What does this fold into?
Amino acid sequence: MEDVIKSTGQRFGVHEAFTLLALALAAIPTSFVIFLEIITVEDPEVCIWDASHDQCTIYDGTPENVCMLADARSWRYNYPLKTVISTYNLLCQEYWEMCLPQLLFYLGMLPSCLLAGYMADQFGRKTALMIFLFLECLFLSLLIAVRGFIGFLILRYFTGLSIGYFVNCETLIIEGLKARYRSTFMAVIWCSFSVGTLTLGVLGVVFDRYIDMVACIVIFSLILLFVYLLGIDESLRWLLIKQKKDRAEYMLSKLAYHNNVEMPKYEDIPKPEDESYGIIDFFTLPNARMITFILLQLSILSFYLLVDYTRITIDMIMCDQNYDKYGFKDSESARSVNFLLTGLISAAGVVLTAVLCAVMGRRPTVVLLLWASLVALVLVSSFPAKRPIIDITSYIIRLVAPGLVYLSSLYSLEVHITPLRARAVGLSVAGAALGGILSAGKAFLGHNHEPSVYITAVEAVLVLYVLVLCIKLPETKARALPDKIEDMPVTMALTDWCTCRNNEETTPLLKDKDTCETGTSKET
It folds into this structure.
């Protein structure tokens, strides 16, 4: 089936480029809804009402001191509807209540990705994409209308349940690409993810109400839904595997027209049997078991680091306690600007990872990025009281973590067979959701301001453990996407890193006389 993809020509046609770029834009609302609670669940600026002077004086103390000095009737919020805390007056509530939106979102995201992968493999990539994107538009629209905190929590959970469309976009992009373009366009979709973080920061600067930010993303998602409905086609690989003859022939003729090339006939294309596979096959098939195990742990760890160091190390410390030391007038502006910076750093990290993949390959890039994360975590655990060290290491982790998340998805798409591919990337993104749950659970327990030496040391050990596992990953650069079990790559041994040793071992000591070139050898 790889020959069919190559038949579309050596460069993209306009239709193909439009399709891939439109699918990549779906990462913008994905990033927005993932990080929404970070910018909307924060300690807002408050002022204490002074009845004697009939004015509201800005209070520079911590929220705990505000709650001790005054009751809810005597303070005012500078931006009453910008944050969830000010909207629902949660300033003096238990801290775990403020962590619930993030935790519930990831709890919904976990089954959503698995379900989206299953539906895409069974009913089609585009069908699953349209269903989940429509659900996201619906739940975000309801989020604008709801006014109670309980309703907000419920809708955050259901918004997480609709995030599975991102899985289908990644699958559609990869299955329509030649091998040399995969890394580039996966980098495009993860750069769009970073643009979503940038968008969140921009909207935080422009609007004073979080529901206005949500309304902008609803409009953008509705536009994408309309574009996908009319302009995106089903995956040709999936149609051939499922032997949907009429739709596959239509796709072949459409590709031939848009790319101005001659495509093979449906009858001449070899079609593997549509065998029945389940989620358990990831852990039972010989070629898939170890790779799935490694990629799942890589996805959990990398997304945990991305969310944790975006929300805690810089965001909480800089924006809620020491924003004035960084030159900001209030915590809201500091948080919005920091999201802009985070988006730029994430985009730079993805671009850097894509370049390293093109030059070095997938496996060396994973190992290099994990080494950088390990060094950063060791520095944090060694100098926990040094603010410049914490800032610098946070930038390093936010630079490399998006690249690791991107590589875990790219690997999942490239090593698994077509009947399992959507479920493979669904499992990878579900692992990311589990990493988000761990980060939210850490904040839920109150570890939200200063990085703990012991927790950071545990994180460094886990990074080292995953680094050793990733050495066994196969190299998939320029490799055809597998359609059958026997075509799947296998894990590599540690000695496979030394290619010179492999060449020496495979070179025979004595050459057969029939293979010698006459006239170039000498007899002694």
In short: The first strand starts at residue 46 and ends at 50. The CA atoms of residues 48 and 257 lie 69 Å apart.
